[in-house]
Each structure stands twice: as structure tokens, then as C-alpha cells.
Amino acid sequence: MFDLTGRTALVTGSSQGIGKELAKALSEHGAEVFAHGTHPSEKLKAAAQYIGTDKTATADLFDANAAKSLFSQTGGVDILILNASVQYKRPWDGFSDEEVDNQINCNLKSTYYIIKEYLPYMKANGRGRIVTIGSVNQYNNHPELLLYGVTKAAQMKLVEGIAKATAKFGVTVNNIAPGAIYTPRNSEVLSDEAFLKKVNDSIPMGYVGDAKAMNGAALLLCSDEGSYITGSEIIVDGGMHL
Ligand SMILES: NC(=O)c1ccc[n+]([C@@H]2O[C@H](COP(=O)([O-])OP(=O)(O)OC[C@H]3O[C@@H](n4cnc5c(N)ncnc54)[C@H](OP(=O)(O)O)[C@@H]3O)[C@@H](O)[C@H]2O)c1
Asked: What CATH number corresponds to the domain at position 220?
């Protein structure tokens, strides 16, 4: 089950956190994986080693040319996981212009342009797997994560539309929406016991998830076993969206 032998994959934002675990899971199931980070770094090298690959690609997804740059480094891949994102916590009217642009560029526009860049190869092959990483904030209305939630909700709309347009070419497009997950992004805030209790209390299962929690959903969606699933979403959040 979930055999990815012979498949190539790119996981954006796999220098740490959820992306690093997703990339390792794909690699452990036989895929040849490109690890990705914003810039070349020791952290990315160490992540690649952890993932079990010697292939890395770098591109800053704030940059409009990132999709073309990435494709020139990786060539076509069978599996694309669009996981990189940025998040700024502010009241809805408190974002700087740069913070607005960064979130829209990295979390939404890059998804559109990267899929557009990588899709012709998948279509020509008659198969492909695209998974975007969304968020429970597509559903919840966190007072300081409105713009982030907007980018993730809009990304889901892209998933549905592109899934419909590409289904007949054997390419599936789906979203995984994590809830609160331990990663370097939030390790500092979650180390505050009072804050952690508040977060745990907001999750029906009562605890923050592990960075590996999305691996099962991703393996299903990226393998032959997931071939009849498209335009869908798997929410992995211990019930937090409810
Ligand atoms: N953690 C959570 O609780 C949670 C909850 C819901 C959804 N999510 C979603 O899950 C995904 C992974 O989250 P995470 O917590 O693992 O994130 P993270 O720890 O903040 O890691 C973010 C990754 O994205 C990359 N990245 C950031 N800015 C970039 C840019 N401008 N260009 C290219 N790459 C960039 C980083 O690469 P560098 O280190 O090289 O910059 C890093 O590998 C994200 O889409 C996030 O929105 C997370």
C-alpha cells in the first residue's frame, strides 16, 4: 500500500515542520523527493538528510518568478505538495502592505503559478498528484489570522477548480487542512503553559497534533490508492474546525 517507487516529488517548505515530515514519508515510501526551502542553508541540507534525499531546490515564494525557477531546478515531478506558507498575526486592519503581499504571494499566488508550471508534465504523463496544505483557519475565525485564513480558503477554491479541469488527464488535486500542530512556527507560543491549555481546550481531542499527523492523508492522496479522490479535502485537526 502507498508504494511510490519510481515517482518523483517536490514538497515546498520542507526545510522544517510539516513539510519536512511529509517529504520524509514520501521518501520512505519510495519517492525521489526534492526538499525545498527559501534559500540554500545548512537547515535545508540537514532536512534533506533527514528526508533521505540529496536533491534540494530553493526559491523564495514571495517572488513572482519562483514557479519558473523551481521548475528549472526540478523538472517535471509526479507529486507536488504545496506546503510552504507565511503567517502574520494581526487584527484584521493591522497588516502592513508588505505583510498583505507576502501572505497572498506565498500562500495563494505561488500555488496557482506552481501548479500552472508543473501541470503540463503531469498531463502529458497521464498522471499526477497535487496536494495543497490548507488550514483549520479556512473555517475558524481567529481574530488575528483573517488574512491567512482568506489565503487558505481561496487556495481550496483553486483546488476545486483545477481538480475539475484536470481530472480527465489522470491528475488529482486535493487539500489537507491541519489544525494546531507542533512545528518550529509555533513552538515558542506553545511553550507558554497557559496559552497551550487554551489551545488544547479549543480542540475536541484535547491536544495539539504532531507534525507527522498529516502523513497518512498525504500518502493516500499521493498514491495509486487515492486515484479516485479529487477536488477533496482531508481535515486533520482533532476536530478543531467543528
Ligand atoms: N503548524 C500549524 O499549526 C499549522 C496549522 C495549520 C496549517 N499549517 C500549514 O502547514 C504548512 C506547514 O506549516 P509549518 O508549521 O510546518 O510551517 P513552518 O514551520 O513555518 O515552516 C514553513 C516552511 O515554509 C518555507 N517558507 C516560508 N516562507 C517561504 C518563502 N517566502 N518562500 C519559500 N518557502 C518559504 C520555510 O522555508 P525556509 O525555512 O527555508 O524559509 C519552511 O520550510 C503551512 O502551509 C501552514 O500554513 C500549519
From this structure: 3.40.50.720
Distance of alpha carbon 175 from alpha carbon 173, whole angstroms: 7
Q: Do the Cβ atoms of 218 and 25 come closer than 8 Å?
A: yes
**E strand intervals along the chain:** 8-11, 32-37, 55-58, 79-82, 128-133, 171-178, 233-236
Q: Would residue 200 count as lying in a domain?
A: no
User: Would you say residue 186 lies in a domain?
Assistant: no
Name the residue of 51, 156, 185 to mutate for ligand 1: max ligand atoms within 8 A of Cβ.
185
Q: CA-CA distance, 14 to 19, in Å (whole number)?
A: 4
Structural domain harbouring 66: 8-180+211-236
Q: Count structural domains, the chain.
A: 1
Q: What are phi and psi of 9, to 5 degrees?
A: -145, 150
Beta pairing class for 55-58 and 32-37: parallel
Report CA Rg, the chain. Answer: 17
Residue 47 Cβ < 6 Å to ligand 1: no
Residue 147 forms part of a structural domain: yes
Ligand 1 in reach of 82 Cβ (< 6 A): no
Summarize pLDDT for 56-96 with one digit per residue, the tens: 999 999 999 999 999 999 999 999 999 999 999 999 999 99
